[in-house]
Prior knowledge:
The complex is a heterodimer.
Chain A: H1 2-9, H2 11-20, H3 29-35, H4 37-45, E1 81-84, E2 92-98, E3 101-113, H5 124-129, H6 135-139, E4 142-148, H7 166-182, E5 191-194, E6 211-226, H8 231-245, E7 247-248, E8 251-254, E9 259-262, E10 270-271, E11 281-289, E12 300-304, H9 308-311, E13 316-323, E14 333-340, H10 347-359, H11 361-369
Parallel strand pairs in A: 4-6
Antiparallel strand pairs in A: 1-2, 2-3, 3-6, 5-6, 7-10, 8-9, 11-12, 11-13, 13-14
Helix pairs in contact in A: 1-2, 3-4
Chain B: E1 5-8, E2 16-22, E3 25-36, E4 48-54, H1 62-78, E5 87-97, H2 110-115, H3 117-132, E6 140-149, E7 155-159, H4 163-168, E8 171-178, E9 183-192, H5 194-209, H6 229-239
Parallel strand pairs in B: 4-5
Antiparallel strand pairs in B: 1-2, 2-3, 3-5, 6-7, 6-8, 8-9
Helix pairs in contact in B: 1-3
Subcellular location (chain A): Cytoplasm; Nucleus, Nucleolus
GO molecular function, one term (chain A): mRNA 3'-UTR AU-rich region binding
Main location (chain A): cytoplasm
Amino acid sequence: MTAAVASFRDPSASQQQQQQQPPALTLPRAQFAALAPRHFLAAHLAPTSSSAGGAGGGGGGNNAGSVRANGRAAHAFRQPRLHRGSLTHAAGSAVVRLGDTAVVCGVRPEILRVADVPNPPASAREALEGICADEAARLGLLVPNVDLATGCSPAAAHLPGQAPSALAQTLSARLLNLLHASRLFRARDLRIAYTPPLAAGDADDDAPETRVVAYWTLYLDVLVISLDGGVFDAAWLAVQAALSDLRLPHAWWDPDASAVLCSDDAERAWKLQFRPATPVVSATFAVFEAKEDKRQDKEWWVLVDPDTFEEGLCKEYVTVAVEGAVNGRSGPRIRKIEKSGGPMVGKTEMRQLVDLAASQWQHWRDALLEPDSMNEGK
Amino acid sequence: MPGPVAELGPLHRVDGSAAYSHAGYNVLGAVTGPVEAQRRDEIPDEAAVDVHVRPATGVGSIKERHLEAIVQSTLRHVILVHQFPRSLVQVSLQVLSVPDTSLMAVPLSSRLTTLALLPALLQTAMHALLSAALPLSTTFTSTLVCVTRGADGGGAIRASPDPECLADAASAHAVCYSAGGELLMDMSEGDFDVDEWDAAMGVGRRICCGEKGGRGGDAVMRDEESESLQDKLRKLVAER
Lengths: 378, 240
């Protein structure tokens, strides 16, 4: 557009310019990226590969030195920033930003009465003694839901008024699996128990039995405001931050009203007690191959925390969820590994990826412990 | 526990089909394609792969969408999609039955509903693709292993665990290996470290691809048949 204006003003000058330029086809950066995205990214990762015959940097997937199109090194994460308590009407909430990905999560607690459960998981006594440890999974006490908001990305897939897309449903399912696999807090904290008072006529050797009358159910609604890759990691951090922000009111069983009552006394509201090894860090990795034809030229890179542009070019993904500091007794504990879409990441690469994910643990922990990391800096 | 049983081509009105049953999971798979794709589904330079998973009871939910996404990304790698641009390969997987755990004291965890089902779905899809004679870059086989931790802290790896063993295990791993022994898919869940994961992958690979390239000596596969899943697949196709 600007070139056309220039030629209109001063045709002789622009002609001179054209003659001076070499005849080779040169394109502005944005056009190159739009026309040949794969070559664009490959040229960033291995600027010398065309002259060095494909030997420059690729091949092993462990080339930490290459710089990607977005300016990050191949093994550089985007550091999360978060803000808690943003939503007034949610019991716990958090906004997480991971680069240009922005996610908000709100927790809404509800009370599930045991009498309303069609098939209670176990007798009340078993439940209290912790025999049925997986009651959170069996009763569905944690209900994550991911909503990809209209306009969260330029892709036309997120239109209003439609059924949740396959991506949104898959993200919800993955969050649910990781919530149960990671066991951030004890499920029995979600119980509301009742011990009947000792009746006057009873013998003192027969203490009244404590029974579970209800459970807290936590609805975790995740709204993706802006989508630029790494959405699962951002959503998972938002869920953990919102759960750590959650304050549940003191609830008790009132036998006279035959109902569970909640106290509005803020002093008696309580927070979930997380395990000390938390947070559980989730890290996504994508495998980028320079050539789309498989088995020809095995030049490939592992891109850490890919953005949307890179996700469009990658087919193999690995998501690792780890906990605990790096210098643990025998390496980090892994809670989940999801790998699909290709054969590139094998045993040796996976060890490296687990270590990379564990290196993020301190950052996530700091972000969760600090009051607000979103207001400071840019 | 009896080994897996597969049948090629039980359905007659689709391009390829397979019935597969192993460890209480029965899955029927059908492949149609390559057929003309709808405008909104078609990809200019490759075939779209469409996977539908139907549960044994009820209608599909987010769990099925997740399974579909995993199976789809694995199949897309294996099918030579660039040979059929702008077309569609449709894979339908109907779960016929899952092990009845209503009388067992096992929690209804995602291990049981997702990880244990995944190998059966992938195996069925592979058999159905072979039955449809679609051009593939390689074949794959899939299995489930779990790591159990004894009271002394020592770990043992169990192949094809039953639901009770799966519920007690420290970690569960659904793996999928190509015929060349490359790890195509891995869904691991639980509490484990890299070394345990490595050992579990080794056992999974031996079940899928046999001894070649793997190291022997672990007393894990004693109760299993020595024939790998890849050998079984090859034999089944040769018979046909």
